[in-house]
Amino acid sequence: MSIFVKKVSKKFGNFQALDEVSLEIKDGKLLALLGPSGSGKSTLLRAIAGLETLDAGSIIINGRDTTHLDIRKRNIGFVFQHYALFKHLTVRQNIAFGLEIRKYSRQQVKRKVEELLELIQLQGLGDRYPAQLSGGQRQRVALARALAVQPQVLLLDEPFGALDAKVRKELRAWLRRLHEDVRVTSIFVTHDREEAMEVADEIVVMNHGRIEQVGTPAEIYDRP
Ligand code: ADP
Ligand code: ADP
């Protein structure tokens, strides 16, 4: 699914959080939105998810204008910095949650959950509760839960931001491999340049609600 963001603007009071932002994400690509805190990255992500009303502009997903489409009809997977796993549900139950409300059969849910546990390499931990997992493991579960319903777009808002440096590095490489496997069109928000370079096919640099640069990691930065 391709995504077109066309001249999207958003103000909070007098503050211009997004100023005529346009970008394109090609089908199956992983794009990093890189920029300092306050540059508008989360607002743009939320706009694409349908969580912000826009002052101007439009968002086209796979040829369809979704600007005014209800969020529940957008089929978007979302992963936040602070894992929003249900703490009274096991890993399996967390992953199954979206499938169950979509009325998949028990057999389908079971198969899909086992598939996803394998994908996130947590086969042995399906019956644990979130509190019994490390931070990195929880984020993998959050990702599996987002992927379970086969979203047309995956949005990741600083998904590794709360983890320590070592785990963060491991998860970057892991996400890169996972994306090569799954190939869902994804946007990854980060303020960490190295992280953007490592995970993304393309980087969009934001500052003050505007796009400053767009390119592949190699086009934007000279790698030593
Ligand atoms: P980033 O994700 O790049 O850190 P954000 O998109 O979260 O930036 O925020 C951009 C700016 O908009 C920030 O200054 C933030 O305080 C402001 N902002 C975001 N959401 C709201 C809101 N609901 N009301 C008022 N200001 C907001
Ligand atoms: P992030 O860490 O993703 O940049 P923030 O901590 O800036 O997120 O914002 C978290 C939530 O608070 C978001 O829903 C955002 O829209 C809202 N928000 C951010 N800044 C403001 C603000 N100045 N006034 C009101 N809401 C805000």
From TrEMBL:
One MF annotation (Gene Ontology) recorded for this entry: ATP binding
Membrane topology: Peripheral membrane protein
Keywords: ATP-binding, Nucleotide-binding, Sulfate transport, Translocase, Transport
EC number(s) recorded for this UniProt protein: 7.6.2.9
UniProt organism field: Hydrococcus rivularis NIES-593
Name of this chain's protein: ABC-type quaternary amine transporter
Range within the parent protein: 1 to 224 of 342
Enzyme class, broadest EC rank: translocase
GO cellular component: ATP-binding cassette (ABC) transporter complex
Major subcellular site: membrane
Compartment(s): Cell inner membrane
Occurrences of domain ABC transporter (ranges): 3-224
